[in-house]
C-alpha cells in the first residue's frame, strides 16, 4: 500500500438513499469525534469526498431531494471545518442517455444490451477516482452495500472479502480499495439510525422517510414510525433512472403516482412506450452503426423514430413543467449534440430546432442556424440547375459546422469522404 496512508482520500458513494445516508451519517459523527480529541486541527488531514453520480435521467423527486441535501452537506462541513467535500459526477455529453438514444439511435437498454450502466454511472465516477489515485497514490471507496439487501448482494460481498481485513481491492481500478462499514446492518437498523439520529448536516430525515413511504409497492408494509427491530419498515423500493427500461416495471414510480404524485404519470407512461416500441422492426435499421448487418435486422433506430422520441420527450417535459417550471428532462447541450449526431449519420431531413419549436412555439435557435439558412438559400439559388450538387455542398458544410459545435474536428475528413462516396453511389445507381 501507499507509504503514507494519512493522505489517502475517502470517497463515499452518495445517492441520497437510505443506505448512503446512514453511511455518511456515521462517517460524519466519527470525524466529529476525532476532531474533539485531537490536539491540533492539522491532524484531520484526510479528505472525504461525498461523490454523487447524476445520470441526468434520475427520478425527479430523488434528484431534487439530493440537490438540496448536497447543498446542506457542503455548507455544514464548511461551518464545522470538517474535510468533507461534495463532488457531483455526470456522464460526458456524448455518453448521455438522450444523445445515445435519439442522437445515435441506440435502442433503449434491456438486460441483453445494458449499455447505460458503463456510460452513465461507472465511467463518470471512475474518472474522478482515477484523478484522486493519480494525485494521492491510492484511494479508499466507502460503499453502503449490505448483506441484508439480497442473497445476490450477500454472495458478492462475501466473494470479495479478505479474511481479517477491512479493505478489499477494487476489481477494476488500480490502487483503489473498498470498505463497506455497514455491510452487517439489517434494514430495520438502517431505518432506526435515520429516525433516531438527527442528520449531522442539518437535513430533515423525515423527508427521505416519506419518499420511501410513498414509493413502497403495494406488497410491502411501511409503518410511519420505526422504533425497534421488531417493526417492519419501508425501504424495499429501488430508485434509479426514471427512464429505465431494464426493469419490467418501475414499482417505486407507480407507487409514488398512486400516493399523490400524479404529475409523474407522463414519465411512467413514456417509459412504457419506449420499452414497448423498442423491438418493432420498422423502428430499426437493418445495419449496425459500423455498417455490418444487424442480428435479425435490428440495428439502430431509424431517423423518423428518433425524431418521434424527441418530440414525445419534449411533450412530456412541457407537461411536467406545468407542475414545476424547473423540471428539465433534456438540456440544450444535449439537443445540440443530437443534431450534430444526426448530421454525422447523414440525417439532414430532421431538424432539432423545428421539433422543439413545434412543441414550445418558441425559438430554439441553435448556434449558426440563421447563418446556415441564409447560406442554404444562397446555395440553392446558385445551384438551381443542379440542385443535387447544391444539396451535397450544403450537407458537407453542415458536417463541418457540427464539428465546430462540439469543438471536435477529429474524424471530419472520414465523414466527408464517406458522404461523397455515398453520393457517387447514389448518382451511379440513378
Explain how this protein is built.
The model is unreliable at 218-236 and 367-371 (pLDDT under 50). The longest helix is centred in the first third of the chain and has 22 residues, at 115-136. The protein has 15 helices and 6 strands. Helix 2 links the parallel strand 2 and strand 3. It has helices at 18-37, 60-79, 97-103, 115-136, 151-160, 187-196, 205-215, 251-258, 265-276, 303-321, 332-344, 352-360, 369-382, 387-405, 412-429, and strands spanning 10-13, 48-53, 84-89, 139-142, 168-169, 176-179. It is elongated. A 6-stranded mixed β-sheet has the order 3-2-1-4-6-5, sandwiched between helices. The protein is of the alpha/beta class and 430 residues long. 49% of the residues lie in helices and 6% in strands. Helix 10 runs parallel beside helix 12 (352-360) and helix 13 (369-382) packs antiparallel against helix 14 (387-405).
Strand order of the largest sheet: 3-2-1-4-6-5
CA-atom Rg in angstroms: 26 Å
In the predicted model, the low-confidence regions spanning at least 5 consecutive residues are 218-236, 367-371
The overall strand count is 6
Q: Which overall shape is indicated by the principal axes computed on the Cα atoms? A: elongated
Roughly what is the average pLDDT, rounded to an integer?
83
Fraction of residues in H or I helices: 40-55%
What structural class is derived from the secondary structure elements?
A: alpha/beta
Q: What about the largest sheet? A: 6 strands, mixed
The total count of helices amounts to 15
Strand content: 5-15%
* First-to-last CA distance: 68 Å
Q: How do the helices and strands follow one another from N- to C-terminus?
A: EHEHEHHEHEEHHHHHHHHHH
Amino acid at each position: 500500500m501507499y507509504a503514507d496512508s494519512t493522505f489517502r482520500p475517502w470517497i463515499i458513494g452518495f445517492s441520497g438513499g437510505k443506505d448512503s445516508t446512514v453511511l455518511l451519517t456515521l462517517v460524519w459523527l466519527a470525524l466529529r469525534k476525532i476532531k474533539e480529541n485531537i490536539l491540533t486541527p492539522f491532524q484531520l488531514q484526510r479528505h472525504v469526498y461525498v461523490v454523487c453520480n447524476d445520470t441526468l435521467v434520475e427520478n425527479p423527486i430523488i434528484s431534487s431531494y439530493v440537490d438540496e441535501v448536497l447543498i446542506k452537506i457542503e455548507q455544514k462541513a464548511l461551518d464545522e471545518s470538517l474535510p468533507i467535500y461534495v463532488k457531483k459526477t455526470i456522464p460526458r455529453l456524448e455518453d448521455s442517455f438522450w444523445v445515445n438514444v435519439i442522437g445515435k439511435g441506440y435502442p433503449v437498454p434491456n438486460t441483453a444490451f445494458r449499455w447505460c450502466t458503463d456510460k452513465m454511472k461507472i465511467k463518470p465516477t471512475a474518472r474522478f477516482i482515477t484523478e484522486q489515485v493519480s494525485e494521492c497514490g491510492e484511494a479508499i471507496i466507502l460503499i453502503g452495500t449490505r448483506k441484508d439487501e439480497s442473497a445476490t448482494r450477500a454472495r458478492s460481498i462475501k466473494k470479495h472479502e479478505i479474511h481479517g481485513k477491512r479493505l478489499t481491492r477494487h476489481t477494476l481500478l488500480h490502487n483503489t480499495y473498498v470498505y463497506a462499514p455497514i455491510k452487517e446492518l439489517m434494514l430495520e437498523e438502517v431505518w432506526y439510525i435515520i429516525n433516531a439520529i438527527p442528520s449531522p448536516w442539518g437535513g430533515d430525515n423525515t423527508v427521505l422517510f416519506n419518499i420511501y413511504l410513498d414509493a413502497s409497492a403495494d406488497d410491502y408494509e411501511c409503518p410511519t414510525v420505526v422504533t425497534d427491530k421488531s417493526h417492519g419498515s419501508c425501504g424495499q423500493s429501488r430508485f434509479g433512472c426514471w427512464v429505465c427500461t431494464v426493469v419490467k416495471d418501475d414499482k417505486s414510480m407507480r407507487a409514488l403516482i398512486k400516493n399523490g404524485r400524479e404529475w409523474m404519470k407522463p414519465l411512467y407512461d413514456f417509459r412504457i412506450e419506449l420499452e414497448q416500441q423498442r423491438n418493432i422492426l420498422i423502428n430499426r435499421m437493418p445495419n449496425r452503426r459500423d455498417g455490418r448487418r444487424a442480428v435479425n435486422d435490428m440495428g439502430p433506430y431509424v431517423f423518423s423514430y428518433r425524431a418521434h422520441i424527441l418530440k414525445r420527450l419534449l411533450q412530456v417535459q412541457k407537461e411536467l413543467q406545468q407542475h414545476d417550471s424547473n423540471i428539465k428532462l433534456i438540456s440544450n447541450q444535449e439537443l445540440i449534440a443530437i443534431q450534430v449526431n444526426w448530421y454525422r449519420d447523414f440525417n439532414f431531413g430532421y431538424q432539432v430546432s423545428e421539433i422543439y419549436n413545434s412543441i414550445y412555439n418558441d425559438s430554439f435557435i441553435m448556434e449558426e442556424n440563421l447563418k446556415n439558412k441564409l447560406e442554404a438559400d444562397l446555395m440553392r439559388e446558385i445551384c438551381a440547375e443542379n440542385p443535387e450538387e447544391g444539396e451535397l455542398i450544403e450537407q458537407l458544410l453542415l458536417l463541418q459546422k457540427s464539428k465546430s459545435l462540439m469543438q471536435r474536428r477529429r474524424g471530419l475528413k472520414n465523414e466527408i469522404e464517406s458522404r461523397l462516396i455515398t453520393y457517387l453511389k447514389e448518382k451511379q445507381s440513378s
